[in-house]
Amino acid sequence: IAYSSYRRGRVPLISSIFQPLFGSRATDGPLGKLIDVMALIATLFGTAATLGLSAIQIGEGVSIIRGAGPMTNSALIIVIAVLGCAFIVSAVSGVARGVRYLSNFNITLTLGLIAFVFLVGPTLLLLNLIPSGIVTYIDQFLPMMAKGMSWGDETIEFQSYWTAFYWAWWIAWTPFVGMFVARISRGRTLRQFIFGTLTFPFLFILMWMSFFGNTALDMVRSGDYPEFAENAINVPEKGFSDMLHEFPGSGIVIFLTTFIGLLLYITSADSGALVMSNFTSRITDNRQDGARWLRIFWSVTVGALTLALLQIDGIATVQSATVVMG
Description:
Layout lengths: L1 H5 L12 H4 L1 H4 L2 H37 L6 H21 L1 H26 L2 H24 L6 H31 L6 H33 L3 H9 L4 H6 L5 H30 L12 H22 L1 H11 L1
Helix pairs in contact: 4-5, 4-8, 4-12, 4-13, 4-14, 5-6, 5-12, 5-13, 6-12, 7-9, 8-12, 8-14, 12-13, 13-14
């Protein structure tokens, strides 16, 4: 998208990258519109799924901080409303201001949290598990890809609620992420672009999954926290907070983690609203982003859709809708 827009002068839309396949007449006509509408719907439901899961996770953190009981439906509505207002403000302020400032601040806090868990947790174990984890992943990559229905009911169940859902979720995010990364990459070389989008995210995810995941697994394997694993299975949104509860200064750490979760969602949703406004606008060189009222419209639409999906059957409905739309 970045190359076709900024080097070949095409409109910065998903349909533009199909121009070499179908020709400009087709992509500028009904076929191009259909492609962009499909990308818009996928982005809408992908962002709504994230808001739904984020609202439950953030709401659980707020309940722990307040010392309140399980999150009620009214509390969930309030959390979604607050998140919606926050990313509307950020989306309206644009890429150069709101989105950029929040993202930089958020990544600083997140790296600080990773460093805290690494230093206070089982540091040597975490260092040992990173290289062994990478080798194990490479070794198991093909066998895991080959798993199918013939492996039995347990594999089928796991693939339906885990593998298929995450595949569809990522697919639903690809039009929006592709558009947004292209939007902020003008002026970069292809080498910088590829290095920036593949290397740093990979290293970040490697640290995040290794440090937090292996710290939790170490707690389970030690046998010193008998209720931790059971609680994490029964109430997944509490698992992260329960793990941090065993660290020194847990009250402050859980508060910081909840705040990071809030910012993580806002910096994703405001980008999504911005891209959806671009999907539904005529972008020119003088105006790279959609109108402000469109950003507000799509932000409100995401919030309303999320609320509707959660009211039907909670996370199960959100997951099903994301799989279908993705």
